[in-house]
Each structure stands twice: as structure tokens, then as C-alpha cells.
Automatic annotation (TrEMBL):
Belongs to the CDC37 family. The lineage of its organism: Eukaryota, Metazoa, Chordata, Craniata, Vertebrata. Residues 4-132 form the Cdc37 N-terminal domain. InterPro entries: Cdc37, Cdc37_C, Cdc37_Hsp90-bd, Cdc37_Hsp90-bd_sf, Cdc37_N_dom. GO terms for molecular function: heat shock protein binding; protein kinase binding; protein-folding chaperone binding; unfolded protein binding. It comes from Hucho hucho. The keyword Hydrolase does not apply. The keyword Ribonucleoprotein does not apply. Keywords: Chaperone, Cytoplasm. SUPFAM superfamilies: Hsp90 co-chaperone CDC37 (SSF101391). This is Hsp90 co-chaperone Cdc37. Residues 125-286 form the Cdc37 Hsp90 binding domain. Forms a complex with Hsp90.
Length: 377
């Protein structure tokens, strides 16, 4: 007989945001590490508030018990002083009863609020949810990063087409049926590939497709977190997720949508970083291509030249450059022309039988002769 589990406790499930289980191929330390510290802090504050309410109620009950005893003792006395004290004691007892009701109401409201709070891995991992007699997930040995990477690569090579097909689905029923027919896809490798797929689509500016695949990524992540919380094989509990999400109340649906929006923002952020990195790499490649024989960038060298020399290169006027050079300090002129040669900004006559030093000297001392024969590149 199959054990029945009360799945009503998952009215509001949050995707785990404190686990760093993403695959090494994913270009971010943890795309699912969302708002964990803030959430834990809120939980701690909420728990402390509950504890304070319970202490307050207990103290109120203690005071009321003492007041009731005092009232009982005074009621048996017939003296005028006792009657006066009795009247005060009864008034105090009445006040403490009201105070007790107030504490009870506050505690009841707190517990009602607790039931409305979204469930997550931190709250689900309790003794009551730690065991299940169906589809129990066997203990597995820790895998090395190399093993995880190879496992991911092998899985994707085999099932890439099926994963992409699942990522493009829109209807709950279609997704459930597809996973029923392809239950091997209910695993971390599928979720990891979908994350990469989302980032690739955002980089390619296929935003509508990215949002669709992002939806399916969160579907898979919800299933995996549910399985992790129950310590069962995810292939054995994905139907329960679909049964719940298709009949979810507004708060559950809001929780799902909130995680989806958070994930899409993360994807956009990672895509932006990837694009910026690619642009920097492209710019560096172009810079390397521009480097002259001496390893200098002609654009950088040009920017370092005096304005008068820059104008000469802008207008490709050799006569003007000759005039500017003669007006400069000889040492400064030699430094500038050496940098122009090393960057390829100026190409002197090729002299196979001369060394670099002779070429440098010729550049300055025989500039008048060479300028008539060279073109400024």
C-alpha cells in the first residue's frame, strides 16, 4: 500500500537559494543563491517574536493564577478591610484575564501568519518531512568536479534535443506528460543546461525565448527542491508539483512568479557580464592586431604625440611633419619617432644591412631624405 503524504504543507514553496549545486560549466558561482541571508534573518526575527509572545503569555497566566488564589483567600474573610482588598483583587483578576486574552490573540495571529509564510528548504527540512517510504533516493557518493563535469557533458550530448524541447513548452499538462514520458530528464543536469540556455538566449537578444525557457528552468528547480526536501528521487515527486501548481492559490502562484522574475533578472545580469567580457576580449584582439613591430599600439602612441604631430598624421602631410620635428628638442623628437616606428605609425625605408639602432638614428637624422619617399600609414 502506498503511503499517503499530506502535500498541503507545500502551499507556499520557495526555490532554495542557499545551495551552490550549479554545474561548473555555468559561468556563475550560484545562480540559485537568492536572498538567503535576508530570508534567514526574517525567519530568525519571526521565531524570536513567537518565543517572546509565548513567554509573555506564560507570565500572564502565572500572574492570573496568583491573583485568583488571592481572590479566593480574601473571599472567605468577612472583615471590612478584607472586603476592600477583595474588591481590588477582583479588579486585578479581571484585568489579568483581559491581558491573557490579548496575549493569546497575539500568539494566535502569529501562528496564523506562520502558516501563510512560504515554505523553503530551511523550513521543510524537519523531522516530519525527512522520511518517505516511496521512491526513496539512495545515498550517493560525493562526486569530484571532474566527475560532475563529465557527467553533465555526457548527459547533454545524449539528451540535448529532449532538454531543449522541454524548455520550449508552455502548458503545465504538456510539461507533465513530457516528463512522464522522459522521466530521465528530471535531474540537476537538465536544470543546469536550461540555465546556460537562458543566458545564451539573452546574449543573443532572444528575450521572449529566454523568458519561456526561464519558466521551465524554475519548474525543474521547484521539482528538484521538493525532492531534496523530502529526500526522495525527483522522478518520484514531479507529479505532485504539477498537481499543486495547477490548482495553486494566489499566494503559491505569487511565490512561483517571484522566483521566476528573480531568476530572469539574474540571467540578464550574467548575460550583460558575458557581453562585456566578450567586448573586452574583442577589443584586446583588435589591439593585438594593431600592434607595431615594437609591440606598441599605434592608437595609444598617436594620443601621446604633441598636437602638432597629430595634425601631421591626420593630414598625412610629410612636409608639415618635417617642420614640426625640426622645432622639437632633438631628444624628444627622437623618442617620439622611435615610438612611431615601434607602433607602425611610421614605416621608415627598409635597410636589410642595418641594425635597429642605425635605423633609429636614420629616422631622425635623415628624416628629410626619407620623408620624400615614405607614406604615413
Amino acid at each position: 500500500m502506498t503511503s499517503r503524504i499530506d502535500y498541503s504543507v507545500w502551499d507556499h514553496i520557495e526555490v532554495s537559494d542557499d545551495e551552490d549545486d550549479t554545474h561548473p560549466n555555468i559561468d556563475t558561482p550560484s545562480l540559485f543563491k537568492w536572498r538567503h541571508e535576508a530570508r534567514v534573518e526574517r525567519m530568525d526575527q519571526f521565531i524570536k517574536a513567537g518565543e517572546d509572545l509565548e513567554k509573555g503569555l506564560a507570565e500572564s497566566k502565572r500572574k492570573l493564577t496568583e491573583a485568583q488564589k488571592k481572590t479566593k483567600n480574601l473571599s472567605s474573610s468577612v472583615t471590612d478591610d478584607a472586603k476592600a482588598e477583595l474588591s481590588k483583587a477582583q479588579a486585578e483578576e479581571k484585568r489579568l484575564k483581559k491581558e491573557e486574552r490579548d496575549w493569546e490573540k497575539k500568539l494566535e495571529d502569529h501562528r496564523r501568519e506562520e502558516k501563510k509564510m512560504p515554505w523553503n528548504v530551511d523550513t521543510l527540512c524537519k523531522e516530519g518531512f525527512s522520511k518517505s517510504v516511496m521512491n526513496v533516493k539512495p545515498d550517493v557518493k560525493d562526486e569530484t568536479e571532474e566527475q560532475k563535469e563529465q557527467k553533465h557533458k555526457t548527459f547533454v550530448e545524449k539528451y540535448e534535443k529532449e532538454i531543449k524541447h522541454f524548455g520550449m513548452m508552455k502548458r503545465w499538462d504538456d510539461s507533465q506528460k513530457y516528463l512522464s514520458d522522459n522521466s530521465h530528464l528530471v535531474c540537476e543536469e537538465t536544470a543546469n543546461y536550461l540555465v546556460i540556455m537562458c543566458i545564451d538566449l539573452e546574449v543573443e537578444e532572444k528575450k521572449a525565448l529566454m523568458e519561456q525557457v526561464a519558466h521551465q528552468t524554475i519548474v525543474m528547480q521547484f521539482i528538484l527542491e521538493l525532492a531534496k526536501s523530502l529526500k526522495v528521487d525527483p522522478r518520484g515527486c514531479f507529479r505532485q508539483f504539477f498537481a499543486k501548481i495547477k490548482t495553486a492559490d494566489q499566494q503559491y502562484q505569487d511565490a512561483f512568479n517571484d522566483e521566476l522574475e528573480s531568476f530572469k533578472e539574474r540571467v540578464r545580469g550574467r548575460a550583460k557580464i558575458r557581453i562585456e567580457r566578450a567586448m573586452k576580449e574583442y577589443e584586446e584582439e583588435e589591439r593585438q592586431k594593431r600592434l607595431g613591430p615594437g609591440g606598441l599600439d599605434p592608437a595609444e602612441v598617436y594620443e601621446s604625440l604633441p598636437e602638432e604631430m597629430q595634425k601631421c598624421f591626420d593630414e598625412k602631410d610629410i612636409a608639415m611633419l618635417q617642420t614640426v620635428i625640426t622645432k622639437l628638442d632633438p631628444t624628444e623628437a627622437k623618442v617620439h619617432m622611435k615610438r612611431c616606428i615601434d607602433s607602425g605609425l611610421w614605416v621608415p625605408n627598409s635597410r636589410a644591412d642595418e641594425g635597429d639602432d642605425k635605423e633609429e638614428d636614420a629616422t631622425y637624422e635623415e628624416l628629410n631624405k626619407e620623408m620624400g619617399e615614405q607614406k604615413i600609414e
